[in-house]
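ugh finaly. both done.
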Amino acid sequence: MTSIIGFAALSAAGLAGFAADESFAVQPTPAAPDSTNTAQPVGSYVPTSVGEASAIAAGDALFKNNCAQCHAVNDKVVGPALAGITKRRRIAWLIPWVKNSSKVIASGDEYAVKVFNDNAKQQMPAFPQLADRDIKDILTWVTSQEGRTASSALATAY
């Protein structure tokens, strides 16, 4: 009798039932979530290729390990905000700057001297260990984050 009451409770909850031929009905299992779903939250950057997505992921890690102590994309921290940096300077200029900014300043480059002076003559550390590809990946990540607020970036990180 207890098994009938238990079955009735399960049946009422929709967890068990009988088919018309009095055998147990097989309940379909829900489909697994579509792992190919690439829907992005509103306002997030969508990479145009697998290579760009890989560069963004690498750049994110490199930025966090080498740049985030002094820079943010959209806000000045110790150093200037980096949003729009690839519009202000060519990559061919940025690579030597990141590897050794004091050398670029010492060369008399007007823009380098201006950045140095505008940031209280705070010297950017040299990053000679970063390969050109690493710097390009960081710049790709920065570009993907431009215009995003910290809260929208955080929301899409999870």
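ok and the 2nd:
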Amino acid sequence: MDVPKAYVESAFSQLLGCRLQRLDTGVAEVALALEPHLRNRGQKLHGGAIFSLVDITMGLACSASHGFDQQSVTIECKINYMRAVSEGEVLCTARVLHAGRRTLVVDADVLQDDKLVAKAQGTFAVL
């Protein structure tokens, strides 16, 4: 899907270092490298950075579903963390499971190589 850069990046996603990898109808993939400013006190990738990656990726999947001419916002999101990340990068893949007129339900997996780091599900409102 060919979308102008201004529609797929925000100041916050740039601050984190998110990099769009793939965008198809209802699907988005975004990568995030573990940089020093994203580490928690235990020197692992901060859970808040992972959650932000998930929310950014889910939002892009929603936009790729209903079109970038409409907006959607997060109503709720639940995440389970499976393992810590000490180095390297992670890839978040988000898929729209249900696209209604007013809400979308989105599923996301965060992987490092073939290992599941986090699993999330969110609901978005179409504005």
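summary for the 2nd one i guess: Helices lie at 5-8, 11-16, 47-66.
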